[in-house]
Design brief:
It is a single chain. The protein has 203 residues and is mainly β. The chain has a single domain, classed as lipopolysaccharide transport protein A fold (Sandwich). The chain has no helices and 13 strands. Strands 1, 2, 3, 4, 5, 6, 7, 8, 9, 10, 11, 12 and 13 form a 13-stranded antiparallel β-sheet that branches. The protein is elongated.
Length: 203
Amino acid sequence: MAQATPAQAKPLFNAHGSYTFDAASSEIDYKSHTGAFQKITIQQGKITVVADRAHASGLGRPDGKWTLQGNVQVHAPPHGSLTSDQAVVQIDRSRIARVAVTGAPAQFRQQSAQGRVTQGHANQIVYNVTAGTVRLSQKAWVAVGRDEFSGPSILYNINQERIQATSSGSGERVHITIAPRKSSRGTPPASPSGPTPPAGRSS
């Protein structure tokens, strides 16, 4: 078992699929490819993961897993950010492929290039890096601007800005609130089926 205190910018994998981590303290077992860390920051490309504690398996191998606890924060611009109590980071072919966070609740936030904010919370949130999706489950709630969605499971496609909400087999339904839009003049658009204004009065 090798020990290092502090651990700073330790590279894992090769230059084509490497990520680095900084930690206040670390304990690495090269024989079993495992490690334990305190106050850790993991980085790969634009993805940054921060936690109070972490345990890693498969260190230095193409496939592995990080289990994080305490004040977990995941930043993945432009896909957004996650905050939670616990998280599992899955490494697939030397890349961070999937992040599953749990909390009471776990939080998600993303701002589009147009400035529209999408945010949500649930007991579990799974961020699929490869697919560019976020799935919220168990008391899921998502707001896209002023529109709100709640239900057992909500899938948000970050790249397409599309939401899919599904109900459960136990009869729990999806609830959707769509806020009224404003016309270009700043007032709600008139319904096409509405009454015709009386003659002599402007519409």
